[in-house]
């Protein structure tokens, strides 16, 4: 009888965790979208995405690899670590720890970047709550990776929103060097 009660508790606990992750995603999305809407309304006549103080990054990158390959690298502790290690000798061989499921936690670049996976659409989209560990407590941004087949390769459409003001240039360079350039080198 105790096993049956324990199994029911685990099922309820799992459903509760899944609901919590879903509501967290909704709250973050709503808050981010509200912030972006307010920013856009306050900047009529200027291009907020071009401002160094904006809280949005949009990048489109072409890779020779297919969507499945890019999706796998972003969700694999071993592959992401190998990619990082091949490009940057300063990181350890186990620099990434990724739980590749919705609600799963990740830690990248030897703990410098942490977050949770909010949405997975296999080989099409990954959405993450993403933060640098030295940001103020409780501050998370949203990183969205979308994969579009382009001939024999992939166009990765990347959007990063909701990060602290004044970090756009630093983060844009970081995405280029630590992700896109590293991926291109790793896939050679």
Task: Tell me about this structure.
The protein is an alpha+beta fold and 188 residues long. The protein has a single domain (54-186), classed as 2-Layer Sandwich (Alpha-D-Glucose-1,6-Bisphosphate, Chain A, domain 4). It has four helices and seven strands; from the N terminus they run αβααββββββα. It has helices at 2-42, 67-75, 77-87, 168-186, and strands at residues 56-63, 97-98, 105-108, 113-121, 125-132, 141-150, 153-161. The protein has a seven-stranded antiparallel β-sheet, sandwiched between helices. Strand 2 (97-98) and strand 3 (105-108) form a beta hairpin. Helix 2 (67-75) packs across helix 3 and helix 3 crosses helix 4 (168-186).
